[in-house]
Amino acid sequence: MNVRFLIARTLRALLTLILVVTFVFVMLRLAGDPIKMLLPEETPANVIEQYRARWGLDAPIYVQYVSYISSVLRGDFGTSFRDGRPALEVVTERIPATATLGFAGLIVALLVGLPAGIAAAMKRNSAIDRAVISFAVLGHSIPTFFFGILLILLFSMSLRWLPSSGSATWAHLLMPACTIGLWNAATIARFTRASMLDVLSKPFMRTAVANGLPLSWRILGYALPNAAIPIVTIIGLIVGQLLSGAVIVETVFAWPGIGRLTVTAVAAREVAVVQTIVFLAALTMVAANLLVDLLYGWLDPRIGSSTEGKSR
C-alpha cells in the first residue's frame, strides 16, 4: 500500500464528513425555529428573541455556520436546550448501549450470513442454495420494526421467555440483536454467495480440487480470501451504521441508545443534539469506509498501485 493511496482516501473521507455536517446544519436551520418548539405558544415575542440571542440563533446562517465549525474544532458541540448540558455529553452517554446492541447484531449477522452464503455457493442449485436465497429475499422483505414486533409477540407475550423492552440484563439484548443481526445476515449471505460463486469458477479452484486438497482448506485458504473484497465492503457498511442504523429497533424495544435519542431530539428540535448525533454517525461511517479502503489495499495490492499509476 503506497502513501498516495492512503492520503487520497483520507482526504476523501474528510471531505465527505464536512459535506455531511454542512448539509445537516443547513437543513436543521431551514426546518424551523427550535426556540418556538421549546417554549409555550403564549410566550411573548421579546422572550423568544432573548432566547434566540442567547443560543446564537438570531445571527445570519453563515455566521452560525462559521461559529459552529469553529466550536466543533474545539470540541464544543453546543448545549442541549432541554437540560442545559453539553450536547456531546448527552449523546456520548448513550453510545455504550448502542455499541453493545450494534456489535451483538453484527456477531449474529456474521455467524449466520457467512456460513449461509458459503454453503449456498458450495451447493449451488440445491435445496440449501434455494433456502439461503429465500432467506435473503425474506430478510429484506420484512421491515425491522415488523420483525421486532413479531419477536415480542412470540417470545414475550406468548411464551414469556424474554423481556419485551429495556436493557437491564443480557436477556433484554437477545431480541433486538437478533432483529438487527438477521436483517444484516440476509445481505451478507447474498454477497458472500455471489462472490464465492465467482471465485469457485476460477481455474485455480479447479486445480485445487484436482490436487485433492481438503474442502475446508479450499474454502478457507483459497476461495474465501479471494472473495473477501465484496464481503469486506458490505461488512464495512454494516459497521458504519452501528451508531445510526438502529433507530427503529431501539424505538420498538425501548433500548436506551442513540437511535431512541435521535427520535426524541428531532421531535423536540434539539438542534445541537441532532447535529452531534449526525456528526458522530457520519464520523463512524466515514471511518468504517476508510478502513475498508485500506483493507482493499492490503487484500489486493494492485488496488493501491493502480491508484498511484492513475495519479501519475
UniProtKB/TrEMBL annotation:
Keywords: Cell membrane, Membrane, Transmembrane, Transmembrane helix, Transport. InterPro entries: BPD_transp_1_N (IPR045621), MetI-like (IPR000515), MetI-like_sf (IPR035906). CDD domains: TM_PBP2. One of its GO terms (cellular component) is plasma membrane. It is found in: Cell membrane. The chain crosses the membrane at residues 12-31, 95-120, 132-157, 169-192, 229-255, 276-299. GO terms for molecular function: dipeptide transmembrane transporter activity. It is a multi-pass membrane protein. Its main location: membrane. The keyword Membrane applies. Pfam families: BPD_transp_1, BPD_transp_1_N. Residues 95-296 form the ABC transmembrane type-1 domain. Belongs to the binding-protein-dependent transport system permease family. This is Peptide/nickel transport system permease protein.
